[in-house]
Amino acid sequence: MLSRDFLRKNLDQMPRLLRGRAYDPGALERWGALDAERRALMTSAEGKRSERNAVSAEVGKKRKAGQDADAEQERSRSLGEEIAALEARLAAIDGELEESEKALPNVPHESVPDGDDEKGNVVVKVQGTPRAFAFEPKAHWDLGPALGILDFERAAKITGSRFTVLSGAASLLNRALIQLMMDLHTREHGYTELLPPFVVNSASLFGTGQLPKFEQDLFRLAGTDWFLAPTAEVPVTNMHRDEILAEEILPLSYCAYTPCFRAEAGAAGRDTRGLIRQHQFDKVELVKFVRPEDSPGQLERLTRDAETVLERLELPYRRVLLCRGDMGFSSAKTYDLEVWLPGQAAYREISSCSSFEAFQARRAAIRFRRSAPGGKGKNEFLHTLNGSGLAVGRTLVAILENFQESDGSVTVPEALRPYCGGLASIRPPGAS
RNA sequence: GGAGGAGUGGCCGAGUGGUUUAAGGCGGCGGUCUUGAAAACCGUUGAGCCGCGAGGCUCCGGGGGUUCGAAUCCCUCCUCCUCCGCCA
User: Fold this and answer.
1) How many CB atoms lie within 10 A of CB A350?
2) Which residues 226-285 on A are within 7 A of strand B at the CB atom?
């Protein structure tokens, strides 16, 4: 959410600031008129309330002194009616203002390139060279079943499409990857690990920006205010909802492994094969709470922290700076990390690292007390960032496809072996 | 799930209808004193909003109600605690 102050000052600039982003221009115009009316009504209502408070106190005083206070009582009562009328109008205006504010996307950072879709994204870095195969590399949806470690059909029986059973080495590797990522981020990158609830309420989803606009992407527990978390970003960012943090503890860095649940409405027909787009997947998430002046540097660091996982696993990837039109609703700036998948001969997203500036902090009321020499500092909204470090299922896919051999086996990357009992190679059933 | 109890400023805690614009304490900050520190003493110290300003308004877990007037009374929801039941 953008601040009212910012909207007021930049109302005529908003079309330029939000160019390329999805929003309703008519809502902006209405916002301006409503805001002015709201402030006028407020001044009037507060004046009346002030008078009523005084008159009301007079009633008490006179009564105590045994005097007649009927005139004051009547005046207070009629003021009360006037106030109630003004307040009803105010509440209606407030509701409308909030509706339009909630629906406005974040203003992109100035370093974000123009563009309407992924064609406007900019590759800022390419790391590693895709391996030259002496044979036709298979896609993981062929490799996995052949190795007997990915079972799509039985998962469809148990639940439905876009679910998978991992068995044997796939389950082991998945577990090892989580462990490797969590160890790396906690021991080498300074993150504090959390195991948050996987179920979140609507207030939390509003705080990070999934609600109210994107409920169709979520699984809701029937008859409740609870949803399966679509990403650990939601529970972890909302850790500090409605809090005022001390400046000294910033930057705060958390990492958390959670399963993630997404309804994938509107993705019908896309990535229907394999592990790429599932209703349930594991992810290690990185979340930071930082001072506003630190957020650009911290986005670079967080993105590096995610890249380090790919480098440890010897996976070729590239870093892409998303253009204005391809960013998420809440983001001010986003880097996607894309891993090379030989089976598709393409780079595919494996991490998305974003700075939200104060957009989420405002929605979730997360502030910090700026320390000032000789006394009290001001409370300010802090900046939040997060990124996948990494999406575990897609990392498993990348390992299977990049490290496959001509005999159908898959070599386990060196860095992962200590986490899976020294397993060096995954072999097809029956192979020696 | 059943029965009780409780939610007040960073923390503890007083307040059961009208100078409470929330007492007091702790903690924090500033100062006096001191070579320095501690102690003691003095002062200061919640959040948000409206207003050019003076100033004003709102907030005592959330929401609703009663009243001229609500932290205080009523309804409802949430959370926590105790006991019972159930359970990994």
Assistant:
1) 27
2) 244
